[in-house]
Amino acid sequence: MQELQRQIEVLEKEASQYRDGIASERQKAASLNREIAILKGQIGQIEAQIKSTDTKIALTSTEIESVEDEITTKEVLQDKKRDTIGRMIAFLDGRDREDILAQVFKYERLSDIVQQIHSVATVQSTMLDIVSELDQIKDELAHQKSQLQEKTATLQELKEQANQRKLQLASVNSEKARVLRV
C-alpha cells in the first residue's frame, strides 16, 4: 500500500511537472506570438514610412523639375531682353553718330524731326524699362536657383532617409525570420 501511495505521489508529481511544462510552453507561445505581432507592426510602420518617403521624393523631384523649367524660361527671357537692349543701344549709337545738321536736312518737315526725337526718347524710356525688368528677372533667377539648391538638398536627405528605412526594414524582417525559426 505504501508502495502504491508512493507511485501515486510520483505520478501526481510527474503530472504536475507536465502541467507546469504545458503552462510554460503556452507562455512561450504567447510570448512568441506577441513578439511576432510586434515585429509585424514594426514592418508595417517602416513600410508605410518608406512609401511616404518615396512619395515625398517624387513630389520633390517634380518640384525640382518645375523650378528648373522656370529658371530656363527666365534665362531665355533674360537673353531676349539683353538682345533687345543691345539692338536699342546700337540704334541710339547710330543716332548719336549722325550729324545734327545732316539730320535736319535729312527730313523735309520739322514735324519729322520732332517725331524722330520723340522716337529716340521712346527708345530710351523703353530701354530703361527693360533694364528694370532685367534686374527683376535677375532677382527672381537668384531666388529660384536658391530654391533649386534647397530642394536638391531635401531630395538627397529624403533618399538617404529611404535607404536607412530600407535597411531598418531588412533588419526587422531578418529578426522576424529568426523568431519564426525558433
Could you describe the 3D structure shown?
It is a single chain. With 182 residues, the chain is mainly alpha-helical. Helix content is 96%, strand content 0%. The chain has three helices and no strands. Helix 1 runs antiparallel to helix 3. The longest helix is centred in the first third of the chain and has 96 residues, at 2-97. The radius of gyration is 42 Å and the shape is rod-shaped. The model has no long low-confidence stretch (mean pLDDT 86).
Mean pLDDT: 86
Specify the structural class.
Answer: mainly alpha
Secondary structure tally, helices:
3
How many β-strand runs? Answer: 0
H/E element order: HHH
Summary of the model, kept short:
It contains three helices and no strands. The protein has 182 residues and is mainly α. It starts with a helix and ends with a helix.
Which tags fit this structure?
182 residues, 96% helix, mainly alpha
List the helices and strands and how they pair.
Layout: H1 2-97, H2 100-106, H3 110-181
Helix pairs in contact: 1-3
